[in-house]
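User: PilZ domain-containing protein. Structure?
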Amino acid sequence: MEKRVYPRVAANFSAVIANEDGIKLKVMAMDASSEGLCVECNTIERNLVTPGGNFVRDGKPVELFVWLDLPDENGGTAKIEARCHVAFSRRIANDRCKIGMRYLNLEKKAYEKLIRFIEYAMASND
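Assistant: Predicted structure:
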């Protein structure tokens, strides 16, 4: 049973991720929650933003910057940005991966936009 106040919602939306070295990729976010999100990419892209596909660097989780275009209830998008750390990197097919991230730094206004998106997505799924 889901124990989160705001559960993870499955939704495809555009995202840009960048690592600390400045490598940026446009990816597809697969789901989001108030605590983090998961994106899908190919293995080459994963290896570009995480060192050789590893999500730990120098004994710490790899940090990524994320820019999200969250669909809103008016047919537009709510743009937010966050600093995250990689929680997992998992291969889902021969050349496809999922990268799970947890928010480290999310401004209050961005968090409010994220909660509105989650509530909207949950209401749309009812």
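Helices lie at 43-49, 108-124. The chain has a mean pLDDT of 89.
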